[in-house]
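User: Please run a holo structure prediction.
Assistant: Happy to. Please share the sequence and the ligand.
User: Here you go; the ligand is sodium ion.
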Amino acid sequence: RKRLTISGLQKMKQERNAISMVTAYDYPSAKLAEEAGIDTILVGDSLGNVVLGYETTIPVTIEDIVYHTRAVARAATHTFIIADMPFMTYGASREATLTHAARIMQQGGAQAVKLEGGSEITGDVEALVKAGIPVMGHIGLTPQSVHQLSGYKVQGKLDKDAERLMKDALALEKAGAFAIVLELLTEPLAAAITKALSIPTIGIGAGRACDGQVLVYHDLLQYASPYFEKKFVKTYADLGTTVRQAIEAFSQDVKSGAFPAEEHTFQPQAEAKTSETL
Ligand code: KIV
Ligand code: NA
C-alpha cells in the first residue's frame, strides 16, 4: 500500500472518511500498527509517560524523539508518520524551531511534525511550512502546558475559552497547518471547530464529530499504561495481563525445571554437520 500524504488526508476530510491515528514509539509497535492498516502513526511525546515513566511530557528531549522516531520509521515504511516536537524545542527562537524540526525529519525520518499551541505559535508554524515541513497543530489540553493549565482537564467549557480555542484553530489553519489534534474538548466545541476548518481535526477525548481519532498505543492495549481507565479511552485488548501472566509462567517454569525441556536443547551428534539450524 502507499503511504498517505497530506493531500490524501485532506481528501479524507472532504469525502468524510474518518482518519485513524495511533501512537507508536518503537519497531514492534510501529510494525503492528502498520500491519493493522492504521492511516497515520504519531510518535507522541506521550512516550515520556508510557515508555519512559515520567510524570509529564516535559522531560522528553529532542534526542528521545529522534531516537524513537527512527525506530518507528524503520518499521512503518508505508504509513504517514508524524512526530511531536518536545517541550521548548519550538517557540523560543525561529532558528531553534527549524533546526529541531529538521532533525526530526532528517535523522528521525518523520513526514511531519506536531506542535502544541495556538495563536502564539503561528509564526513558527508559518516558518516550518515555508521550509517545506508539514505541521500538525494541537490545541485544547496541551500536556506540555500542564502546569500552566493547572492539571489535565477538559478545555473550552466556558464560552470565552471556547472562543479562544476556535480562534486558535483558525489561526493554525491560516498559518498552514495540515491538520489539528483536538485534545479533551467538549463535543460541541470540537464539532464547531471541525466544521469551521477546511483541514482535518483529529480528536482525543473530543467527541464524535472530529474528522479522525487518535489513541495512545499503551492506553488502547491496556499495556502498563496508567491512563487506560480514562473516560475517553476505549481499551481493545488487555496486553498488560497477557504479558504479566506469560512472564509469570516462564519464571515458574524456570524454577520448576519445566523449561527448558528436551526440545529446546542441543545435543552432540555422531555425524559431523557443518551447520545447525537454531
Ligand atoms: O503525545 C501524544 O500521544 C499526543 C496525542 C495524545 C495526540 O500528542
Ligand atoms: Na504529544
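Residues 44-46, 57, 84 surround sodium ion (ligand 2) (CB under 6 Å).
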